[in-house]
């Protein structure tokens, strides 16, 4: 069941909405005014509300808990106490980590543990109220009720900027807890009080990221009255340095009423000196409000890449909700991949050596099992320079670490979480869409190695189960977990490799990988019409329960079941339709997916947002609604796309029906609300759906595109008028339910005519 409880919007957003009744002509309103960073902090969204810049290294945000699946970001809206503000977070992750370098302002007795949510008084955490929170792009504020301290946060790319306004107290202090992290294990740390205004140190940890060291340099606007450190339960007043596990530092102040102390914290993955350099390069003096205003401007410029409009204004609840939902989704889509290099271009590579950026900006945090679907194609569309830097980063990672970052890459290490070989999708999608200023020969060398070679002793590199895939044409369930999902995703990956081989003139490779891309057929059971596990003898799994979501050795599908994964053949939709027996039977099968019971056998937390067996809360389902377009029933795509946008997304804290997953959940909404979706990344085709807004202007980067904008106009648009009556491109009728990326490249105008009933003749093939 989807959590449908309603929360009160943040005060700032309430004011904004209240002033927006005269239409979009309110020119004082900016894109940032429609962003609510609280969206996704409730239910299973796993987002964080704190301060961050687009693709910024630092994500400075409050933490309410570090235990449990719904606290992977360190914050959940259901909580009522805060344990501090740390500098690194990930948006919508299904695995906890980060939360490094926690700072907490307090008054009163010195406490060196946060304490439990059930009893905040036993530690340094403080109660708070959502009524006292403000969350906007690049800024977060809250009142810590137990201490009567106002906390304010803002950021530059590599620096967290704190402002704490204290009451009158002779026991005001600021804590730095070096043990603290989100569901990871601190393996060592150091903290050093350099002088009466500066503290430096580092924290090492093992968690989702198998090895991570975060360095920091913190500078304070006012000198400390006194200071000390702790280790374990031992408090050492006057001590200036501590190292080991379970350590921290504190500084003391005498404060007057409403006296503020500001802190600038430079972060680096390279060294303390580089953290200090980052701090010095990005902020001078003590100008919190200037930095905050700068952050807002940066966000406004970024969000302004897409302008959405209702010609009649946003004078009803539906339109207000959609404006906030859209711009918040766009905001979430622009958070990652994150900067990983220092201000001077130095970064730690996958070979654990320090490297220097040359002709690109190095990024990290490629959650590619999630983001190859819509998040990365969205960046290709609206921020091609980030797409280019991502491709160049992947090539550098291959050169330094020997393999492309599959299936996920965070920090300066590979991970063995999730499946697939999706760097090739990102590389191909960029190349096909004209973002080709990279070494394509080297890129092809890298993707071919991933597709052909099995690393010895490393499940975090290359393709797990590749030897079985090459031998049998599928991965047997008695040899590898998640065998069906791996087979289907490798088949799609092979199609992508084939297209890149063709681009570089590797004809033999093209034919080989194209043939391999048909391997998905080997797991389609003619009896059920579903992708079904098969063992190494060729025998089907018995018993076969299509709604079963397995774990351990019974995990044959990745966070899904047969009904949810059997539609993942994005590279050969016609072939998938043929397997089902043609358009009519394919449509009937899709109808069954969306109308059957939502009950599943066993479960995983990610399988949420159910419509029948369709699970919008998890990524394998995200393209499925658009498959009706390819079988002659595009009106059903339009109907379901609106249903999902209207029922599973909204502008309250529980406005996401599942994990944000590093921007993928939000990118789906951004694309779908504009009226189109990239069903097959790596192919220049967008499938049409049902646009929400009356007018959309995508401002294009002329360094990569031939025009400065692509325009979408929707006539006779309303909540009820969700069905396409006709479509035109530059005044010419469009009869297919899709269009080519070249139309965007050349700056066309896409115009929809909508109505309350489906036009079942439009889009027929």
Give the topology:
Blueprint: H1 11-18, E1 51-52, E2 59-63, E3 81-82, E4 84-86, E5 102-107, E6 126-127, E7 134-136, E8 139-144, E9 149-155, E10 159-166, E11 169-177, E12 185-195, E13 198-206, E14 212-220, E15 226-231, E16 234-237, E17 241-244, E18 247-255, E19 259-268, H2 272-282, H3 288-303, E20 306-309, H4 317-333, E21 338-339, E22 346-348, E23 354-356, E24 363-364, E25 366-367, H5 368-371, H6 375-382, H7 384-401, E26 408-410, E27 413-415, H8 423-432, H9 440-452, H10 466-472, H11 483-503, H12 507-516, H13 562-565, H14 573-580, H15 583-595, E28 610-611, E29 614-615, H16 634-647, H17 664-674, E30 676-677, E31 685-688, E32 695-699, E33 709-715, E34 723-729, E35 732-733, E36 738-740, H18 741-745, E37 749-755
Parallel strand pairs: 33-37
Antiparallel strand pairs: 1-2, 2-4, 3-6, 5-11, 7-8, 8-9, 9-10, 10-19, 11-18, 12-13, 12-17, 13-14, 14-19, 15-16, 15-18, 20-32, 21-24, 22-23, 25-26, 26-27, 28-29, 30-31, 31-36, 32-33, 34-35, 34-37
Number of strands: 37
Largest sheet: spatial strand order: 7-8-9-10-19-14-13-12-17
The CATH topology of the domain at 43-303 is Beta-galactosidase, Chain A, domain 5
Question: What fraction of residues sit in β-strands?
Answer: 15-25%
**Range of helix content:** 25-40%
- Rg, nearest Å: 26 Å
Largest sheet: 9 strands, antiparallel
Mean pLDDT: 94
What characteristic shape results from the CA principal axes? Answer: globular
Low-confidence stretches: 1-27
Number of helices: 18
Instruction: Assign the structural class, choosing from mainly alpha, mainly beta, alpha/beta, alpha+beta, or little secondary structure.
Output: alpha+beta
The CATH class name of the domain at 43-303 reads Mainly Beta
Distance between the termini: 37 Å
């Amino acid at each position: 069941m989807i959590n449908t409880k309603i929360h009160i919007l943040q005060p700032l957003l309430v004011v904004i909405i209240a002033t927006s009744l005269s239409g979009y002509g309110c020119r004082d309103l900016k894109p940032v005014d429609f962003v609510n960073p609280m969206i996704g902090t409730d239910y299973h969204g796993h987002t964080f509300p704190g301060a961050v810049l687009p693709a910024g290294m630092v994500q400075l945000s409050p933490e309410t808990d570090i235990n449990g699946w719904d606290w992977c970001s360190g914050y959940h809206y259901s909580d009522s106490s805060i344990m501090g503000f740390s500098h690194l977070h990930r948006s919508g992750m299904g695995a906890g980590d980060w939360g490094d370098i926690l700072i907490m302002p307090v008054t009163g007795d010195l406490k060196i543990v946060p304490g439990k949510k059930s009893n905040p008084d036993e530690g340094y955490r403080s109660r708070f109220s959502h009524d006292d929170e403000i969350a906007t792009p690049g800024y977060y504020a809250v009142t810590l009720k137990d201490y009567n301290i106002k906390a304010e946060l803002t950021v530059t790319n590599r620096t967290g900027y704190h402002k704490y306004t204290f009451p009158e107290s002779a026991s005001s202090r600021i804590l730095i807890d070096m043990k603290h992290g989100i569901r990871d294990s601190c393996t060592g740390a150091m903290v050093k009080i350099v002088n009466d205004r500066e503290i430096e140190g580092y924290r090492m940890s093992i968690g989702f990221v198998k090895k991570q060291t975060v360095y920091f340099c913190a500078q304070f606007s006012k000198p400390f009255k006194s200071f000390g450190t702790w280790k374990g339960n031992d408090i050492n007043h006057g001590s200036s340095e501590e190292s080991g596990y379970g350590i921290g530092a504190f500084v003391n102040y005498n404060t007057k009423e409403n006296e503020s102390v500001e802190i600038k914290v430079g972060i680096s993955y390279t060294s303390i000196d580089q953290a200090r350099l980052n701090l010095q390069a990005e902020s001078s003096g003590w100008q919190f409000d200037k930095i905050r205003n700068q952050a807002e401007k940066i966000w406004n410029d970024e969000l302004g890449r897409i302008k959405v409009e209702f010609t009649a204004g946003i004078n009803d609840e539906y339109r207000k909700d959609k404006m906030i939902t859209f711009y918040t989704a766009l905001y979430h889509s622009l958070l990652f991949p994150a900067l990983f290099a220092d201000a001077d271009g130095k970064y730690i590579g996958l070979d654990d050596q320090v490297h220097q950026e040359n002709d690109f900006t190095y990024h990290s945090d490629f959650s590619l099992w999630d983001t190859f679907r819509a998040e990365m194609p969205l960046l290709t569309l609206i921020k091609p320079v980030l797409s280019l830097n991502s491709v160049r980063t992947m090539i550098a990672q291959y050169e330094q670490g020997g393999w492309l970052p599959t299936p996920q890459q965070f920090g300066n290490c590979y991970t063995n979480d999730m499946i697939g070989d999706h760097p090739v999708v990102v590389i191909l999608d960029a190349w096909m869409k004209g973002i080709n200023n990279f070494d394509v020969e080297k890129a092809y060398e890298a993707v071919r190695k991933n597709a052909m070679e099995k690393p010895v002793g490393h499940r975090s590199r290359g393709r797990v189960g590749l030897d079985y895939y090459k031998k049998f044409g599928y991965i047997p369930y008695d040899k590898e977990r998640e065998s069906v999902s791996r087979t289907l995703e490798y088949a799609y990956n092979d199609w992508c490799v084939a297209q890149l081989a063709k681009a570089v003139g590797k004809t033999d490779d093209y034919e080989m990988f194209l043939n391999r891309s048909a391997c998905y057929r080997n797991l389609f059971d003619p009896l059920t019409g579903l992708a079904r596990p098969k063992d190494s003898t060729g025998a089907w799994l018995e018993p076969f329960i299509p709604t079963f979501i397995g774990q351990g050795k019974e995990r044959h599908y990745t966070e899904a079941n047969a009904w949810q994964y059997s539609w993942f053949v994005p590279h050969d939709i016609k072939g998938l339709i043929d397997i089902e027996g043609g358009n009519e039977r394919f449509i009937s099968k899709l109808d069954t997916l969306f109308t059957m019971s939502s009950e599943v056998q066993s479960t995983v937390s990610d399988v949420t947002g159910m419509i029948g067996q369709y699970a919008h809360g998890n990524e394998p389902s995200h393209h499925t609604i658009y498959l009706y377009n390819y079988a002659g029933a595009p009106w059903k795509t339009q109907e379901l796309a609106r249903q999902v946008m209207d029922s599973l997304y909204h502008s309250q804290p529980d406005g996401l029906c599942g994990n944000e997953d590093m921007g993928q959940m939000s990118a789906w909404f951004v694309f779908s609300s504009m009226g189109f979706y990239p069903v097959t990344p790596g192919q220049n085709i967008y499938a049409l759906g049902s646009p929400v807004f009356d007018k959309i202007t995508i401002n294009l980067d002329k360094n990569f595109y031939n025009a400065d904008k692509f325009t979408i106009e929707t006539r006779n648009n309303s909540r009820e008028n969700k069905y396409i009556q006709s479509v035109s491109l530059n005044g010419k009728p469009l009869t297919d339910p899709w269009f080519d990326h070249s139309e965007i490249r050349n700056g066309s105008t896409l115009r929809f005519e909508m109505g309350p009933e489906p036009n079942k003749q439009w889009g027929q093939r």
